[in-house]
C-alpha cells in the first residue's frame, strides 16, 4: 500500500501538481518511520532486533525504498526555507511550495490513519485452512507421562510429533529408522517463519522464502544458511521423552 501511495504521489509530483508536494513529504516521512521501525517487530517473530535489521538492510528493495523516502523528506525539509523566501516575495511558486507545520502534521496524520485502517483490515483473521501435509500430533502423546512430549512406544518412524519447547517455540520429534530420536525446532533459521513437514518428501519446508531442511535439520535448500536447532532429549525408563534444552539455538530463539 505504501509503495502504491508513493507511486501515485511521485507521478503527481513529477507533473508539478501543487497538491502533491506536501502529501509526498508527509507520506515519505511516515513510510520511512514505518520501514525503519519494522526492525523492532523482531521479537514478535522470536528474532533479535539486530538479526532482523541485518536481514532487512541486506534486501536491496528495502534499501532502495528507504533511501528514496529519506531523499524526499530531505529535499522537502531543505527546500522549505527557499519556498518561504519565495512566498514572502509574493512569488507564485513560493506560495505553491510553502507549507506550515500545521498542514504537514495534518497530512501526516491523514496518511497514518489510512495506514492504520489498512493494518486493521490486514490483521482480520480469515478461517484457517488445514495444511494437507502437516501431521497431527500422535495419539500416543496421551500415553506419555506428565511433562513428557511423547512416549517412544507410540512413535512411528518418520512421523513427527509436535510440541512446544520452551513455551511458544514449535518443535518436531522424529523417530529415525535406527530407533534413535531427533527433535528439531520448526522455526526456519532464515527469518524465523514456522516450517511445515512434507510427509511425501520427508522434508521441512519453509513457506516464507522456500528453504528446505532434511529430517536431521540440515539445510537442503536456502536462503536459510544455518541448520535447524535441535532440542536435547531425555528418555526415562518407561520410554517417556522429555525435552531438556536447545542446542545451537540460532537467530529465532531470543
Ligand atoms: S524465513 Fe525465509 S526461508 Fe524461511
- From the spread of the alpha carbons, the general shape counts as elongated
- Beta-strand percent range: 15-25%
What integer is the average pLDDT?
Answer: 79
Tell me roughly what share of residues is in helical segments.
25-40%
How far from one another are the termini?
A: 31 Å
Residue ranges: pLDDT <50 for 5 or more in a row? 130-142
- Discrete helix count: 6
Ligand names: FE2/S2 (inorganic) cluster
Radius of gyration: 26 Å
| Topology pattern, helix = H, strand = E | HHHHHHEEEEEEEEEE
Largest sheet: 4 strands, antiparallel
How does this model look, in words?
- The chain has 254 residues and is an alpha+beta fold.
- It is 39% helix and 17% strand.
- The chain is built from six helices and ten strands; from the N terminus they run ααααααββββββββββ.
- The strands form three sheets. Strands 5-6-7-8 form a four-stranded antiparallel beta sheet, with no helix packed on it. Strands 1-10-9 form a three-stranded antiparallel beta sheet, with no helix packed on it. It has a three-stranded antiparallel beta sheet with strand order 2-3-4, with no helix packed on it.
- Helix 1 (2-14) runs antiparallel to helix 2 (18-37), helix 2 packs antiparallel against helix 4 (60-88) and helix 2 packs across helix 6 (101-123).
- The protein is elongated.
- FE2/S2 (inorganic) cluster (FES) binds at residues 188, 190-191, 193, 206, 208-211, 223-224.
Amino acid at each position: 500500500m505504501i509503495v502504491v501511495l508513493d507511486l501515485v504521489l511521485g507521478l503527481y509530483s513529477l507533473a508539478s501538481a501543487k497538491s502533491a508536494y506536501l502529501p509526498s513529504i508527509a507520506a515519505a516521512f511516515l513510510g520511512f518511520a514505518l520501514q525503519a521501525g519494522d526492525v523492532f517487530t523482531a521479537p514478535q517473530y522470536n528474532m533479535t532486533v539486530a538479526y532482523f535489521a541485518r536481514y532487512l538492510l541486506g534486501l536491496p528493495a528495502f534499501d532502495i525504498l528507504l533511501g528514496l523516502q529519506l531523499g524526499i523528506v530531505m529535499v522537502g525539509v531543505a527546500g522549505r526555507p527557499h519556498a518561504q523566501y519565495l512566498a514572502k516575495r509574493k512569488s507564485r511558486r513560493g506560495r505553491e511550495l510553502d507549507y506550515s507545520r500545521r498542514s504537514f502534521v495534518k497530512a501526516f496524520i491523514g496518511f497514518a490513519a489510512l495506514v492504520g485502517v489498512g493494518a486493521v483490515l490486514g490483521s482480520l483473521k480469515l478461517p484457517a485452512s488445514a495444511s494437507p501435509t502437516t501431521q497431527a500430533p500422535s495419539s500416543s502423546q496421551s500415553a506419555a507421562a506428565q511433562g513428557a512430549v511423547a512416549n517412544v512406544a507410540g512413535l512411528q518412524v518418520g512421523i513427527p510429533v509436535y510440541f512446544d519447547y520452551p513455551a511458544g517455540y514449535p518443535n518436531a520429534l522424529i523417530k529415525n529408522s535406527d530407533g534413535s530420536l531427533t527433535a528439531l525446532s520448526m522455526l526456519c533459521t532464515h527469518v524465523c517463519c514456522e516450517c511445515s513437514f512434507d510427509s511425501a518428501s520427508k522434508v521441512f519446508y519453509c513457506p516464507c522464502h522456500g528453504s528446505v531442511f532434511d529430517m536431521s535439520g540440515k539445510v537442503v535448500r536456502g536462503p536459510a544458511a544455518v541448520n535447524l536447532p535441535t532440542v536435547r532429549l531425555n528418555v526415562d525408563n518407561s520410554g517417556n521423552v522429555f525435552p531438556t534444552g536447545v542446542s545451537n539455538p540460532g537467530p529465532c530463539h531470543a
